[in-house]
Amino acid sequence: MDVKTASAVRRFRLVSFVEAVSFVVLLAASVLKRTTDFNAVPVLGAVHGFLFVLFCLFLLDAWNRTKWSLGRPVLYFVLSVIPFAGFYAERLLKAEEERWVAAAHGRKAQEVPGDRDEQAVGA
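The chain above was modelled as a monomer; its predicted structure follows.
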């Protein structure tokens, strides 16, 4: 396990959090658009769309480096399209990141809840 893998998971975790925040802000702007004269949806929609593309790219990068089975990236993708679930995904990714960083530095880390993929690999 190397530092590049830990960095990929960290980048993915950070963009996951920002994407989750942008999704919630976009939902709030959508409500305001329909209830007031305030319309920030075009701008916030473009920002959220850009962040979602980054999310997908970083998801693919982290998946490639960590060698997760198909279930884990699918879970993160599904969580990204459910309002507020992106924050739960960020929590899972934080534990995952800590485990990869500890492994990259040769330390024993706490096990990630629900992490059966890495047990099979022998991490």
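Residues 69 and 120 are 10 Å apart (CA to CA).
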